[in-house]
């Protein structure tokens, strides 16, 4: 197993390099880069896209001909100013050199500073991380704690009324978009048209530091109840049905019939024999569930509940073309995702020691 883990760790390097290279190459063709964004801000335009919209009508009034500058919206600005911006953002160097410098810095976990926020990327991520950890960790934990026992129960009572009405309930929950359910929760329980039970924004209250330890725990869970529920609701259906079908497949196999013939109790058969085999496919889906909830599905939830997490940070950085944040978070998230994949394989072996990845590769 040790050699397999070493090989997987070594594969992280080319995989991560390929992810960064593809995204870096795509960015070179995206209009409205950091220099154009800075120019638009310097001219009071807010962002570069307003300049694109008005370029056709303002071109005739420009002081410089259109071919004197490669940047739309830069007309009328001194060339020295444009050159200084390019040097500041590193665009005075060819793309290959910029990419190699970026990878060298990232290998040393030096992600630089934000173009427009005057703060290091690491500090920004640390600032936003508590929100994403809260949503990702609690949503994944609750989804597994509810879905696995429910799926086992549905498999044992397959075809009964319990199986029918729970299936209808979780499929209905899956069909409701997360953002729509979040808005519904706000309207019902957060000061909308009905009750004002939960707070509207933030992870903690303004007086959090003044609360007792027990009160701090209660305040934290009071704030995260609605956003965690909204981000978890759609995960129940997939995990529950996956668990149920996996257990049904195992229950019908010959070794289960043999175990029952030997006089083992139904509980002993279920948890002593079936559970270990049936849970393999559920564990295999853990990285996708965790990474999806942790990074992918948080933007809308963060926006609705006024939470400042990594989802909003990444979106705002992409819109502003703040490349240090974009590529820094991409590198970190990609690395975490690859490591979680290795941890998933280790969980395979923990659940079923008969699995030997080295022998299967050989």
TrEMBL record:
It is found in: Cell membrane. Its main location: membrane. Keywords: Cell membrane, Membrane, Transmembrane, Transmembrane helix, Transport. InterPro entries: MetI-like (IPR000515), MetI-like_sf (IPR035906). Belongs to the binding-protein-dependent transport system permease family. PANTHER family: INNER MEMBRANE ABC TRANSPORTER (PTHR30465), INNER MEMBRANE ABC TRANSPORTER PERMEASE PROTEIN YEJB (PTHR30465:SF66). This is Inner membrane ABC transporter permease protein YejB. The lineage of its organism: Bacteria, Pseudomonadati, Pseudomonadota, Alphaproteobacteria, Rhodobacterales.
């Amino acid at each position: 197993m040790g050699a397999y883990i070493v090989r997987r760790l070594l594969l992280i390097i080319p995989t991560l390099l390929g992810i960064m290279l593809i995204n870096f190459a795509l960015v070179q063709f995206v209009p409205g880069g950091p220099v154009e964004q800075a120019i638009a801000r310097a001219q009071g335009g807010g962002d570069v896209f307003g300049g694109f919209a008005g370029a056709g009508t303002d071109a005739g009034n420009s002081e410089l001909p259109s071919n004197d500058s490669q940047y739309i919206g830069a007309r009328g600005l001194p060339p020295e100013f444009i050159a200084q911006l390019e040097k500041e953002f590193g665009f005075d160097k060819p793309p290959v050199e910029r990419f190699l410098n970026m990878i060298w810095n990232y290998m040393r976990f030096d992600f630089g500073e934000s173009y427009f926020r005057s703060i290091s990327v690491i500090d920004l991520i640390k600032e936003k991380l508590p929100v994403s950890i809260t949503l990702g960790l609690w949503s994944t934990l609750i989804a597994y704690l509810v879905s696995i026992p429910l799926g086992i129960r549905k498999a044992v009572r397959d075809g009964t009324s319990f199986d029918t009405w729970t299936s209808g309930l979780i499929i209905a929950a899956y069909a409701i978009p997360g953002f729509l359910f979040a808005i519904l929760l706000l309207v019902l329980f957060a000061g909308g048209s009905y009750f004002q039970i939960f707070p509207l924004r933030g992870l903690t209250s303004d007086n959090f530091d003044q609360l007792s330890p027990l009160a701090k725990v209660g305040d934290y869970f009071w704030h995260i109840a609605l956003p965690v529920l909204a981000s978890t609701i759609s995960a129940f259906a997939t995990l529950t049905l996956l668990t149920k079908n996996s257990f049904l497949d195992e229950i019908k196999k010959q070794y289960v019939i043999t175990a029952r013939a030997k006089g083992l109790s139904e509980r002993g058969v279920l948890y002593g024999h079936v559970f270990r085999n049936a849970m393999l496919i559920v564990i295999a889906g853990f990285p996708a569930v965790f990474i999806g909830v942790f990074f992918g599905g948080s933007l809308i939830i963060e926006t609705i509940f006024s939470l400042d997490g990594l989802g909003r940070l990444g979106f705002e950085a992409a819109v502003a073309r703040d490349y240090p944040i974009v590529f820094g978070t991409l590198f970190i998230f990609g690395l975490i995702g690859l490591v979680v994949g290795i941890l998933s394989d280790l969980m395979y072996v923990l659940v079923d020691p008969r699995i030997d990845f080295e022998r299967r590769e050989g």
